[in-house]
């Protein structure tokens, strides 16, 4: 049965919500580190604060998904999460002690991270009801990220980075208001099938893939955590930081569209090798860059690195993971790519940055990216790309599995 045309306004509200919520992602990934630096925290302390996020996300995503399933609602859970964000940011704005900030930001992450997979779930289901592609909703996240990267940069350049939490509260409040107009639905968020983990881990091909992803994830999360610190070290203003995030976010849009349409004509492993090389080149260039403007230009490589990797990695997972273990495999992938790598890169990266300097920090990130590149290449050249018996059709939309791996666009 076709949905009535009177229900169509649901999609515009979802697009508006997706657009707005990515403004909070800009702040957390790009301006929170500068806020911490303004409080006088060291690079290693900032690394610890960054590492807390992935660690908390392991628990938070699961618990809020269970709550959403139990009470058969996503909208009400979303309202609770956004209200929690606003309250915690209010407390954080008045915190100056490192120990207090650690406590508050830990609780904040508990409310912050689950917003993205749950919002993507609503968008995917709504898009399917109206026979639309999820990309028609999700692309507004990239547009929103680019928009807020510029606007927030200019706003904070006028009011100062000390007002970062005020801006965060304003954007979260706007998202909260939009949520009131979104149609609620029961949560179909997939639960991790613990019985399926052993079946997945018996696949050597998948273990090899996860190992390469983990190595690349460390490199990427190192850059995510310290790009703003690097720009700050080079004397960049909030406006320049905003332009760097704008450049990366805008660059990924055409790549997402192109690979969603034509990417399946190219084997996954060559694309992953290419993306890893692009990451390595990107980190090398950031390491030797001597100006903030140069780093903004280098951010355009985000399209060839993250853009290519993201779509291709999801596509490869649909080939490697049997249907009955898909939810478990995607959960494991999220842990490897985002949570575990983020935890290690935050703690390790902070020490490397502080003790050995920015250049060696990015050379270390480049080394992890090259290690991933060699891993993907060795599997391609010595094993050969091959179709697995459990693969699904290549046309599976990459963006439709996004909730399992929400990442920064940075």
TrEMBL record:
<dbReference type="InterPro" id="IPR020846">
    <property type="entry name" value="MFS_dom"/>
</dbReference>
<protein>
    <submittedName>
        <fullName>MFS transporter</fullName>
    </submittedName>
</protein>
<feature type="transmembrane region" description="Helical">
    <location>
        <begin position="361"/>
        <end position="382"/>
    </location>
</feature>
<keyword id="KW-0812">Transmembrane</keyword>
<feature type="transmembrane region" description="Helical">
    <location>
        <begin position="206"/>
        <end position="223"/>
    </location>
</feature>
<keyword id="KW-0813">Transport</keyword>
<dbReference type="InterPro" id="IPR024989">
    <property type="entry name" value="MFS_assoc_dom"/>
</dbReference>
<dbReference type="InterPro" id="IPR036259">
    <property type="entry name" value="MFS_trans_sf"/>
</dbReference>
<keyword id="KW-0472">Membrane</keyword>
<feature type="transmembrane region" description="Helical">
    <location>
        <begin position="165"/>
        <end position="182"/>
    </location>
</feature>
<dbReference type="InterPro" id="IPR026032">
    <property type="entry name" value="HcaT-like"/>
</dbReference>
<feature type="transmembrane region" description="Helical">
    <location>
        <begin position="100"/>
        <end position="118"/>
    </location>
</feature>
<feature type="transmembrane region" description="Helical">
    <location>
        <begin position="139"/>
        <end position="159"/>
    </location>
</feature>
<feature type="transmembrane region" description="Helical">
    <location>
        <begin position="76"/>
        <end position="94"/>
    </location>
</feature>
<feature type="transmembrane region" description="Helical">
    <location>
        <begin position="44"/>
        <end position="64"/>
    </location>
</feature>
<feature type="transmembrane region" description="Helical">
    <location>
        <begin position="269"/>
        <end position="289"/>
    </location>
</feature>
<keyword id="KW-1003">Cell membrane</keyword>
<feature type="transmembrane region" description="Helical">
    <location>
        <begin position="12"/>
        <end position="32"/>
    </location>
</feature>
<feature type="domain" description="Major facilitator superfamily (MFS) profile">
    <location>
        <begin position="203"/>
        <end position="410"/>
    </location>
</feature>
<feature type="transmembrane region" description="Helical">
    <location>
        <begin position="295"/>
        <end position="318"/>
    </location>
</feature>
<dbReference type="Pfam" id="PF12832">
    <property type="entry name" value="MFS_1_like"/>
</dbReference>
<feature type="transmembrane region" description="Helical">
    <location>
        <begin position="243"/>
        <end position="262"/>
    </location>
</feature>
<feature type="transmembrane region" description="Helical">
    <location>
        <begin position="330"/>
        <end position="349"/>
    </location>
</feature>
<keyword id="KW-1133">Transmembrane helix</keyword>
<keyword id="KW-0997">Cell inner membrane</keyword>
